[in-house]
Design brief:
The structure holds two protein chains of two kinds. Chain A has six helices and five strands; from the N terminus they run αββαβββαααα. By secondary structure, chain A is of the alpha+beta class. Chain A has a five-stranded antiparallel β-sheet, sandwiched between helices. Chain A is globular. Chain B is mainly α. In chain B, α1 crosses α3 and α2 crosses α3. The chains are: A alpha+beta, B mainly alpha. At the A-B interface, α3 of A face α6 and α7 of B.
Chain lengths: 145, 153
């Protein structure tokens, strides 16, 4: 089950929430209850738009780390989806990145996950075509370019 | 005593400072100071970064509201020598005999030694060593094996 894989990530010290979101912003799987689904969806869309913008300039990121409302937010991008992790300390980032790489490899062998991905897969660039960037997005992107 | 993230503070007693104004973060810290917990422990509780907390504590110190009573340097947990023996064995499978030299170079880069290598630095070491593996699939295999090794130690 994808949840079992996500729980491995949640077992890391200070990790409060892990979620897999499609590039449409839909939440496929999650563990932890830190945020309401609407907020998580909004964050996912922001991240996907940032990812898409960097992809356009030829620098698609694999990992993205953001300080957000007293938490550290980590995004691990893959083909068609993003794993969002929210934790409380920077000290676990190395361990988190390694665990996410392994978790991603396991997810891509999981039938339940692949079925979900097939149904919800989307091009990140579509998120860019929906309206223009707000000031927060421009500020965010400027940190990575 | 210096104020750093390992410092323990208490409220100043027997001295009434002049009129002071506290911002919300300073007030949050004041409510947590108990003469036992370190700056770092209070920062964690309030989800401040260590640097932020030290800055706020310094501000409270300069206002004469708190004093440093102790500095509790934490005991650093190190990995046992067997960790490096296993690490070498695994990395050799991926990059060959050069693994031993790569590990030594990476330790130099981290300014650390095998004898006193902190457990908290192990994931960073693994990440740096992973970069030496060019094949992405092999890199993941290496990280998978190393995660298992980390769980054991």
């Amino acid at each position: 089950m994808p949840q079992t894989i996500l729980k491995e990530i949640q077992n890391i010290d200070s990790v409060e929430m892990v979620a897999i979101c499609s590039f449409k912003g839909e939440i496929g799987f999650k563990v932890g209850e830190l945020l309401p689904e609407a907020d998580l969806k909004a964050i996912a869309i922001h991240l996907v738009r940032a990812f898409a913008a960097l992809k356009v300039v030829g620098k698609p990121p694999i990992h993205m780390e953001i300080y957000w409302q007293n938490h550290f937010l980590h995004a691990r991008f893959a083909d068609g989806f993003v794993i969002i992790t929210i934790c409380n300390t920077l000290e676990v980032m190395s361990l988190l990145r390694i665990t996410l790489n392994v978790a991603l490899a396991n997810l891509l062998q999981n039938k339940t996950f692949l079925k979900w991905l097939k149904k919800h897969s989307a091009d990140a660039l579509k998120q860019l075509r929906r309206g223009s960037f707000d000031e927060h997005e421009i500020n965010l992107i400027s940190q990575f370019t | 005593m210096d104020l750093n993230k390992f410092a323990v503070c208490q409220l100043v007693s027997g001295k009434i400072p002049g009129e002071v104004t506290l911002n919300s973060m300073e007030w949050a810290i004041i409510t947590q100071i108990d003469g036992e917990r370190t700056v770092q422990q209070i920062a964690k509780k309030l989800t401040f970064s260590d640097a932020e907390a030290v800055m706020i504590f310094n501000s409270l110190l300069s206002k004469g509201l708190i004093e440093v009573i102790a500095v509790k340097e934490p005991e650093v947990q190190t990995v046992p020598p067997a960790f490096f023996t296993q690490l070498e064995k695994i990395l050799i499978q991926f990059i060959g005999p050069v693994a031993v030299y790569v590990i030594n170079d990476t330790l130099l880069e981290l300014n650390a030694s095998r004898e006193k290598f902190p457990k908290t630095l192990a994931p960073e070491l693994i990440e740096l060593l992973s970069d030496e593996i060019s094949d992405d699939n092999k890199k993941i295999q290496f990280q998978k094996q190393m995660l298992e090794l980390l769980k054991r130690y």
